[in-house]
Amino acid sequence: MSNKMWGGRFSQSPDAALEAINASIDFDRRFYAQDIRASQAHVAMLAKSGIVPKSDAKAISDGLGKVLKEIEAGTFTFSRALEDIHLNVESRLAEIIGPAAGRLHTARSRNDQVATDFRLYVRDAIDALDAMLAELQLRLAEKALEHAGTVMPGFTHLQSAQPVTFGHHLLAYVEMFARDRGRFADARVRLNESPLGAAALAGTGFPIDRAMTAKALGFARPMANSLDAVSARDFVLEVLSATAIASTHLSRIAEEIVIWTTPQFGFVTLSDKFTTGSSIMPQKRNPDAAELVRGKTGRVIGALVALLTVIKGLPLAYSKDMQEDKEGTFDALDTLGVTIAAMTGMIADMKPNSDAMKNAAGAGYSTATDLADWLVRDLKLPFREAHHVSGRIVARAARSGVALEDLPLHEFQAEHAKITKAVFGVLGADKSVKSRTSFGGTAPGNVTREAKKWLRRLGRSAS
Ligand code: ARG
């Protein structure tokens, strides 16, 4: 049997290998709801424009409603011979309502149809991800407020640098996730135009109303160029870029959790709900969820690179290569959802170990910059000179194996005679963080204010 949708031109049926490479139904069935919604908008427009009789349009729309119910009830039989979701739906519609089903595909093509469905699907997906990212930000901001004054080491090169607060560290991620949400929101504005009615590539001679279908589907306007409408996939690339960047941010905090939960650091403890054991080593508490958040970033970035590679060599307009836009995108969007959920759970439950963080914050001469700043402020030394003096004092402390605040005053004075005991007022991790009151700095007062600002904002956007 030749294909029932375009059999007119064919006498042989497709080879099994063609069916295997060509069929997309195994994955594009995922946007059945968007496909049916777009078809209903299309047929309503065809009726209103007098292109299809109203009675047929009603039969088509009702029939599509039945198809939707069958798919949702799990009674629909998907067929690979029918290639994709579009032909599967249309073919079942014909079984339900008869020949009038054949009028649905007037003045459109699967090229504008798939572009429309996919835009609708991606739009829904980023709305869901945005809500999930907001929830993650909320959990981070709550923890940040609780730990606005909890001192921990801040690192550069993963070497102790200057003390910061745990709350400040967590709020850094709240900012990153805010930009991730911004990238999704920006991409959403650009993707929210309707390709429907571009037909195969050149538009159509039927008097269609593209503004009507665009409006019905929640798009801001119809796309202005029919060739662009069917061949553009930059909307997916943009969303995948935003997905990859968000995933990278999740991977960074996941990596920190992996480090913080080692017995060597011991900065935080994950709850049992987010910890796994070892089948051989009874003492182990492994941060598998964090490791997987980190690891899954690979496939998300892979999806972006794969689609960039698919699109880069394609002439206008549609080529079947473009069917390769879906599986990686679905996987990347799903993966981002799973990783956000896991991270949200880990953050909500994790218990910081304030003593371990505080001890570590004081180690490694992390207040050497505070000493240098004191020399600049109180003794009016140029910063470069202050840096040298402080370096020599740190070397003295290291030789005697003590912290800066435990070094006797005469040792300080051996490096600079004018140093007084007032210098001890800036040494120590607590004093150091309290002094960092510049805008965006780590002082607990700043952190409290910023955490409250975020909680207010997130509270508002959630309502
Ligand atoms: N399944 C196809 C895809 O996902 C739908 C468009 C098919 N168009 C065509 N001219 N064969 O891209």
Describe the structure.
The protein is mainly α and 463 residues long. 61% of the residues lie in helices and 5% in strands. A two-stranded antiparallel ribbon has the order 1-2. A two-stranded parallel ribbon has the order 3-4. Strand 3, helix 8 and strand 4 form a beta-alpha-beta unit. Helix 3 runs antiparallel to helix 4 (54-73) and helix 11 runs antiparallel to helix 12 (326-349). The longest helix has 37 residues, at 110-146. It is elongated, with a radius of gyration of 30 Å. The two termini are 56 Å apart. The structure holds arginine. Arginine binds next to helix 6. The site of arginine has 10 residues, from helix 6.
How would you sum up this structure in a few lines?
With 463 residues, this protein is mainly alpha-helical. The protein has helices at 16-22, 25-28, 32-48, 54-73, 85-97, 110-146, 166-191, 210-216, 226-231, 234-260, 288-311, 326-349, 354-362, 368-379, 383-400, 409-415, 429-435, 444-462; strands at residues 151-156, 159-165, 193-194, 221-222, 268-269, 351-352. The two termini are 56 Å apart.
Helical percentage: 55-70%
Count the E strands. 6
Our count of helices gives: 18
Specify the overall morphology. elongated
Bound molecules: arginine
Output the structural class.
mainly alpha
Give the key terms.
mainly alpha, 6 strands, 61% helix, binds arginine, elongated
Sequence-ordered SSE layout with sheet pairings:
Layout: H1 16-22, H2 25-28, H3 32-48, H4 54-73, H5 85-97, H6 110-146, E1 151-156, E2 159-165, H7 166-191, E3 193-194, H8 210-216, E4 221-222, H9 226-231, H10 234-260, E5 268-269, H11 288-311, H12 326-349, E6 351-352, H13 354-362, H14 368-379, H15 383-400, H16 409-415, H17 429-435, H18 444-462
Helix pairs in contact: 3-4, 3-6, 3-8, 4-5, 6-7, 6-12, 6-18, 7-10, 7-18, 10-11, 10-12, 11-12, 14-15
The chain binds arginine.
